[in-house]
Amino acid sequence: MGYGLNKFVNHVDQNLLCSICAGVLQEAVITPCGHSFCDECLHIWLSRPNTTTCPSCRSDVPPYDVIPVLALRGVVEGLAVHCDNDEHGCKMVLKLEKLPAHLQECEFALIECGACGKSVKRFELPDHHEECEIIKNLVAKHKKTQKEELTIDNLTKQIALLEVDLNKTKTALRESEGDVRRVKRELRELQFQLEVRMSEEQEFDQDWDPEYNYGYSPSSIAQLASLVSRYLLNKPYYVDRNRIFNAIKRCYDYYHGYAGYSQDVHMLLAASYASNWFTENQRSNFDSWLQNLARARFLISS
To answer: What letter does residue 111 receive in the DSSP assignment?
Structure first.
């Protein structure tokens, strides 16, 4: 169908009008007989039963002989027109070919509200959305639902995080309880060891000389032998292995040649050799000294 004459700003030449719809040619086509029509108008005309003639001169018009008239189409598209929304306030005047693009953005075009169905001008649509009761109700309902969903979601996340923290705390507590039990056990062991060592020191006092002044008197030989024998496999922690070895060596050096004390020296060396107080090298010395004492007794007896 052709364009309405009132759309155009200026007078339109009669040669640009369709003789079927009397409007300005839209998508102009031409028949073999030379008459121009709107493409849609001629198609409808020729679609009627038993109609194969030109509307103007009644000449035969085979459908395949109808062709577009590009020159006429260009002329029509170059005509100045009013915006379709001029009755709503748009005063835009532009070429017909520019009209479709303008209508896509025209601020005076009537847009139907998707909520209430009311048609308002495009530039008034934002204000209408703020005032539309249906939209207000939908927004309020959505916000309420969203708030509830967010609240539930947040609570769920918080609960999950708290459960993780709780499990970590329980694990840490179990580990702490294990550490406490271990520390208590170690403390009891240390207290027991302390009591044992304090007891050892008290028992040790009668034979123990912190200055290691053994070997300077005959009585110190038996005293030292008694000390080593009593703690044969459990050397007191405060006894210095090397200093006690030197004291035993001193006893041997000073008294092994005296018949009256050789037996005490032998007892001291035997106890020292049997104990776990000394190194292998030190025990080797004890063995050598014991052999010397044995040879000396053999020589005396023979």
So the answer is: E
| The domain defined by 5-81 carries CATH number 3.50.50.60 | no
Candidates 25, 20, 91, 93; CA nearest to 51 is: 20
β-bridge pairing 36-38 and 67-68: unpaired
Neighbours of 79 (CB within 10 A): 18
- 112 by DSSP, 3-state: which? strand
Measured distance CA(51)–CA(41) in Å, rounded: 13
C-alpha separations of 26 from 3, 62, 67, 260, 298 in Å = 6, 21, 14, 150, 149
- Average pLDDT of the segment spanning 74-89: 93
164 — alpha (psi -120 to 50), left (phi > 0) or beta? alpha
Structure tokens at 291: 């052999």
Q: How far apart are CA 35 and CA 61, in angstroms?
A: 11
pTM: 0.43
Which residue's structure tokens are 């107080």?
277
Note the pLDDT of residue 167: 80
**What's the confidence (pLDDT) of residue 42?**
92
Q: Residue 47: beta bridge partners?
A: none
Mean pLDDT of 25-44: 93
Domain residue limits, the chain: 5-81, 109-143, 151-199, 218-301
The tokens for 172 are: 């840490």
| Cα–Cα distance measured from residue 196 to residue 162, given in angstroms and rounded to the nearest whole number | 49
Q: Which SS3 state, helix, strand or coil, does residue 13 take?
A: coil
pLDDT digits (tens, 9 = 90+) for 127-170: 877 888 877 777 777 666 655 555 666 767 777 777 788 788 87
Residue 225: partners with Cβ closer than 8 Å, 6 or more residues away = 264, 267, 268, 271
Among 55-69, 78-92, 101-115, 226-240, the range scoring the smallest mean pLDDT is 226-240
